[in-house]
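Bit of a strange request maybe. I'm writing a small parser for structure token strings and I need a real example to test against, not something I typed by hand. Could someone generate the tokens for this chain?
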Amino acid sequence: MQTKILLSEDQMPRQWYNIIPDMPGQMFPVIHPGTLQPVTPDDLLPLFPMGLIEQEVSPQRWIDIPEEVLEVYKQWRPSPMYRAHQLEKALGTPAKIYYKYEGVSPAGSHKPNTAVPQAYYNKIFGTKRIASETGAGQWGSSIAMACQHFGLACTVYMVKVSYGQKPYRKSMMQLWGAEVFPSPSDRTNAGRAILAADPDNQGSLGIAISEAVEDAATHEDTRYSLGSVLNHVCLHQTIIGLEAKEQLKIAGDYPDVVIGCHGGGSNFAGIAFPFISDKANGKDVRVLAVEPASCPTLTKGVYEFDYGDTAKMAPIARMYTLGHDFMPPGIHAGGLRYHGAAPLVSQLVHEGVVETKAVHQIACFEAAVLFARTESIIPAPESSHAIRGAIDEALLAKEEGKEKTILFNLSGHGHVDMAAYDAYFNNELTDYEYPETAIKESLSHLPKVG
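Reply from user aminoacidic:
Good idea to test on real output. This should exercise your parser:
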């Protein structure tokens, strides 16, 4: 029985798949936070290089991957796909479970798939420094690594609760040359205002984004870089699903269900979008996004226009949101803490193309432990949401006595996330369902657009 399904370097996709031409329903404009009018390319230039702005709105279905990016990708791509024989055996399921493993990248996650092209397009645009944010740290370490490849300076605002919980992610960023600050910080007007109101504020991705956007917008040589949510980020990640389709061909198989964990949408889009293309062309495949119950953007949020950050400096987009001033609980150890969802993913959910599910963190860590003890790989806490989803699908197949092929994206390893596992083994984690009253309060502050 084949366990590893590998592609050679010359089989690596040379184009990204852009889902925009294949989207169902109406595409909504991105709105300027100041004028409340649709943004123009000139509006975005203080934040992004023109190459990425063009990709953000491109109508082309296939976009060439630059040779310079492909050369860096070759350090870890094509990434392996595994058949989870031991997990299947432990579950006693008739289902076949495959997982695409993105933890083989130098940063240990899928995030370099977009960090590298973002650094490349900034380099050729003349950018000298990148300002960005990170929550759990996978993105911060990835953009720091990518900046090293292309000779860019890098500043990362790391959500304060993660800065304390995940010190080794901070060390990775510093090892790759980035300066890292806990957010909210005293370096920006946004950070200072938040600290003045609440000196003990533990931060959120929305706050960290505000600081990074302000940093970029106020320095001529600096551009902003985001690791999820935006169209061009989802585009770059599709190399995951494109490789997965080729690997499944080698295995002589095709999934009944494709699963990804969901925070902002990047790794989910990466595994799912190429299969959604098949679905649009008549293939019978389900696509499932699994998110934490403590940050239930897709399952309890509303599909409305909202700011991408807390200080209302980032563009406004139509998306599933819990409100831009949503504050996730610090007790949540599994990451995936962003208040909104990628507009492309949001629209697919709204149109009924993508299914959604929220899961509690203890069930996720139980799934992660079972996975580690059967498949040996220690998953990132974020990835455990996808594992939980895959295990639930496999157990349902067992209950129904039906064969089923399951594919999920194991978006990264957990080697520097051991504090979360320590908390689980010490019975320090609790399940937390974000209260409806808090969501309602946050949603009352949405911008009035249209």
